[in-house]
Amino acid sequence: MTLLPTGAHPVPVDVSLVPELSGLFAPTTAERDIGPLEVVGELPPELDGTYLRNGPNPRFTPIGSYTYPLDGDGMIHAVRIDDGRVSYSNRFVETPALRAEERAGHALWSGLMTMYRPDATEVGAGLAGTRKDLPDINVVRHAGRTLALAEAAPPFALSPELATLGRETFGGALPAGITAHPKIDPRTGELLVFCYGIEAPFLTWSVVGPDGTIRRTPTVVDGVERPTMIHDMAITDRFVVLVVAPYYFDIAAAMSGGSLLTWRPEDGTRIALVPRDGSPTRWLATDAFWCWHLANAFDDGPAPGGAGGAGPGPDGAVVVDYVQWDRPGTDDPADEQHAMLVRARLDLGRGTVVRTPAHDRRVEFPRIDDRVLGRRHDRVATIATRPDDPQLADTLVVTDLAGGHDAHWRAPELALGEPVHLPRPGDPDPGHGWWATLAVDRREDVSWFLVLPADDPAAGPVARVRIPVRVPLGLHGVWLPSNR
Ligand SMILES: [Fe+2]
């Protein structure tokens, strides 16, 4: 954490020294509406809806520091498919802090790793001393609300035209905010969320009903004694699943110029199974690993009879699929650690965690067909990074965890983003439909919305929608069929 002398002002960062501010990541300041777009190939006629994707996109040169992927203003990119016509739009998430910066014509809030907040002379009494909202990580729609999501902070609601409507606190019930990765239970329509805090309580979970009203106000997850960073979650019919790795906030160290976050592998990683009925949390411990993203989890029956007659307990097991890192990731190509897709089986009776890698590819951004979130699933889509650049992914990998094989499609001329599943309307089979991703062309300043058949991803895209501008590489997105 960078400390500034009293009265000092953070200076602009050297963009050339920050990989996530240049090249394919370089932010765009333009807000555009472009269409109709050229389609190479043939869009499936059943596809009708909107793909939304969020990502950090600082409006002005950051001051003090820039920490990807947390810092940066949110920008939502939309690809709309309407009766075969395709268009593209993008808009900033207009937070009060961003509006103040737009009035000033430059950045006023420093990056997270610089200890600085603007005073009233810079931003007025209403915003003086505040933290900047950073709804730049994900976007979801629930109960008619489209939400741009931040890490452990209130999201911002958006109109269908991507106008920012304001901070969403769910009627004041969730003032501290929610995770960037809430989960919608397709069975109940509930939105399940968690939020970690720097101060006690360090971890809570909540439930928003399908009508958008609060069903469970923030409820403490017992057993978390330190402020701990947790990025994602999963759900099953019975549990909220939280991977609690030993990655702690250390405010005392930060206040003296040290690191805000500290990795303590000796503590191991614990997995919290929080019963959705409100009964006490079940904790399972294993060796330390870090996890940015989970693909899914589901309740499973007891394991087949164990060796030595140690039969499974009556509570069965929970299966959790996620991308496993040795430790919190760095973007340093010299960092040899491998991010792997892993299936973990948590036996509640024995209290054991058995982790099995699916393959040896270096992958991230795991997604499934969201219609089976929380229930048994087989296929997980990820993107695999290039050996020469761990920040660029050029391969879509769809892994069948039941069948033990994967299908992949490689496009070395592109940098692929997170995959999303596009269901075929009326067809409940996750193995059908399509996988889509927003890719940046490495040869020229254009981007592509790619649509690949889910039953044969290795065949490559059936349609490539050409977006005649570069959409900066970003983070998470969602497909919203037009009938929702
Ligand atoms: Fe994420």
From TrEMBL:
Q: Which domain of life is it from?
A: Bacteria
Keywords, in A-Z order: Dioxygenase, Iron, Metal-binding, Oxidoreductase
Q: What is its EC number?
A: 1.13.11.-
Q: Which GO terms describe its biological process?
A: carotene catabolic process
Query: What InterPro entries does the database record attribute to this sequence?
Result: Carotenoid_Oase
Enzyme class, UniProt record, top EC level: oxidoreductase
Cofactor dependency: Fe(2+)
Which Gene Ontology molecular-function terms are recorded?
carotenoid dioxygenase activity; metal ion binding
Q: How is the cofactor bound?
A: Binds 1 Fe(2+) ion per subunit.
Q: Where does Fe cation bind?
A: H181, H231, H293, H476
Q: According to its UniProt record, which protein family does this protein belong to?
A: Belongs to the carotenoid oxygenase family.
Report the protein name in the record.
Dioxygenase
Lineage of the species this protein comes from: Bacteria, Bacillati, Actinomycetota, Actinomycetes, Pseudonocardiales
